[in-house]
Every structure is written in structure tokens, then in C-alpha cells.
Amino acid sequence: MRLFIVATGLLVLGHTGFAASTVLRAVRILDVAHGTVISPGEVLVEGARIVEVGQTVSRPAGAEILELGDVTLMPGLIDVHVHLFLHPGAEDLQTVEESVPQRTILAALAARDDLMGGFTAERDMGTEGAGSADTAVRNAIDQGLIPGPRLRISGNAVDILGGHEDATKYNPAQHVLSNADYANNAAELVAVMREQYKEGADFTKIYETGKDRYINGELHSPYQYTEAELTAAVTEAARVGKRVAVHATGEPGTGFAARAGVASIDHAYQLSPETMRLMKEKQIYAVPTFAIAEYFAAHAASEAGAARMEDGLRLHYAEFKKQLAAGVPMAVGSDVGPFPHGTQARELVLMAQHGMSAADVLRADLINGAKLLNWENEVGQLKAGYLADIIAVPGNPLNDITAVERVQFVMKNGTVIKSAK
């Protein structure tokens, strides 16, 4: 082992490569699929992969033994809705005042913070005006140049003229750019997607609804693309083995997205019974993003604004319970960026507080998250052959889900990134 310092001055650990094998020993190991723990637990890692998992594992000659103590070993966390190119503060001003090079540096630091928080895989849902700069961040992580989670990236999101992320509140004579790429019909959608894929995007993120308004306790959110237009986008993505995710909060946009066959409906504040039925049937994931709504309510500019946001959050929690009862599959995404990177495990806690068992939240995060990112059979479980993305949390997260907010140990690709020892 050797010690090195990352930009924050945090002491972390990294393998020199002298030990061919590593055995992690802990009081418990999480079996995600069955929602149980194995005690005691050991994991044998060779190179970047897990070789063996159990109460005891083989000890090859020269293996390094890491005694982690009274913790639970579990797969690295997955966040399927992040914004590496955003940080706390006015989002619209960030994208106007900060250059793309500056934002890329901040995104690299955000990726490091997420990794140190235990998130070893993420889906970046739009650079908010930084174009394909996320390609450079992803590639630098993959090449081992900077620390961060393994990433699926989208480049800019896609939006209509005057849509959810367009700069509609500014003086039009200033020609302030949209935070998304414009596409106003099916042909333009396909053209934009092809350009984004050329620049390195792994999937497409589309704004399907917005802006939202609550009137007499009901959500009103105009759709941006028709079902036929979304179907064209899904078909184009599938042509090259990719997927479409949508920002969509209410009907009819969420229904259009479900019928078109998108991979996920992110935010999903209100869904009709028919949309929920289709999502269950097609295994389209809802990604609730409670943590960002909670943060905005707590940091509202006025008491009236906070009250409106809290009312919306209460409605969202109630709708979430309906979606669970209807069997809508869930994945875990926090919308981190407007609140501090590395703190988004709060999303798992909120999902457990508002209707899911801890075991179900962890399955939604790890198993469903891996499927949504197309890394099924690679990450999300501690199993032989899977990538050695492993974290340790104090206690038993099945009994206290808040343990995921106190990650003590992080391994990615078989390399120890963070350790309390």
C-alpha cells in the first residue's frame, strides 16, 4: 500500500500493485438481492474483479489482508441522476458566469467528492450548457488520471425553443444561451442525438415537461415533445444500443414517455394509473429525486417559497406511495449538483422514510441502478466476476439506512480509494 493526497488534503490509500490479491474482512457483508447480511464476511479481490465472497474465502500466497472491523461490506453506491457540472448557488448564473473550462475543473472535483461519498457509478444527466465536456471527465476517470465514479454521460440535455431549460427570463437582446441543445421536432431530435453520440454521449437526456405549476394542489406541467417525437428519439437511440431518459413530472408528458419506451422517467411527481401500469409492464424506472426538493425547500429565498416547495414535496411523497403500490420499478437518483456533491446518500434515506424498506431501497439503488446504466453483471452486487467496487459502512444498513451516509471505506476497480484505517 502507499499513501497519497487528493486535492482536499484527504488521506486516502492506493495499491502499488505489489499484492496480486486482496482479502477484505468485516463483521458483515450485504447480500443485496436477498436483503440479508452474511456474518462474518470476506471478499477476495484479484486485480479489478471480485473472485470469491463468503464467510471465509481463499487466501492466495502473498494476499494482502485488510481487517475492516465492525462494518458492513456492500457494493459501491449508484446515483442515476447527478449533475457534475453544477454546484450550490444560482444555477442559471453559474452557466452564464463560469467558463466551460472552469466548470470542467469543478466537475472533476465533484466526481472526486461523489466517489469519496461511496458512489462508484453514476449517470450524469446533462452538463447544463457545457456541451460534451463531460466526455473529457469520463475519459479521464476511465484512464485513471483523476478519481471519480464510472460514468454514463449525456452531454447537454435536449430541449425545445423556449422550453424548460431555455434562458427565457433574460433580456432577449442579450441572446443568453440555453442550458440544453435545441430540437423542435423529430428530425431535429435525431440530428442532435447523432451529434451528441459523435461527441461521446452514452445516452440521451430529454426535457419532456416544464415549467411546473401547482394549482389548487394539482400539478400542471406542459409537455414539450409528442409521443411520436419521443418514439423517434427512442428508436434512434436503440439503433446504436443506447437509451433515452426524460425529465418528466406529470401528465400528459409522462404518459407520452412511457408509451414511447424510455428507460427512465426522472422526477415523476405525478403519474396517471395508466402510466404507472405501462412503467410496471415495460420496466421503466421512476427516479424520484427527493433530496434536491428537500434541499430547495430548506434553502428557499422566502418563507412563502419554502412553503410552496414543502407543499410540493408532500404531494410528491404521497404520489410516491401510490407508485410503489402500483408496482412501478424504482431507481435512486438524487439530482445532486445544486446541493453539495458527496452528500447525496440522503436520497436513500428519504426513500426509506416515505414508503420503502431499507432492503428495497438498496435493491433499487444497486440492482436497478446497475440495470439502468447497462452495467448489470458488472456492478451493484458482491459476486464473483463482478468489478471490485466495494464500500464499507458502520453497522447494518438493513437496520439503519442512514449508515450509507457514513461511508468509511471505498474501493473501486480493486484499488482502495478511501480508508478510515
Distance between the ends: 12 Å
**CA radius of gyration:** 21 Å
How are the strands of the largest sheet arranged? Answer: 5-4-9-21-22-23
Quick one: overall form?
A: globular
Task: Report the CATH C-level class of the largest domain.
Answer: Alpha Beta
- The count of domains is 2
The chain-level mean pLDDT equals 94
- How many individual helices? 11
Runs with pLDDT <50, length 5+?
1-18
Instruction: Look at the structure and name the CATH superfamily of the largest domain.
Output: Metal-dependent hydrolases
In the CATH classification, which architecture of the largest domain applies? Alpha-Beta Barrel
- Main sheet, how many strands, which sense, barrel? 6 strands, mixed
Strand pairing plus helix content: what structural class? Answer: alpha/beta
CATH topology of the largest domain: TIM Barrel
Count the E strands.
23
Portion of residues within helices? 25-40%
Q: How much beta, percentage-wise?
A: 15-25%
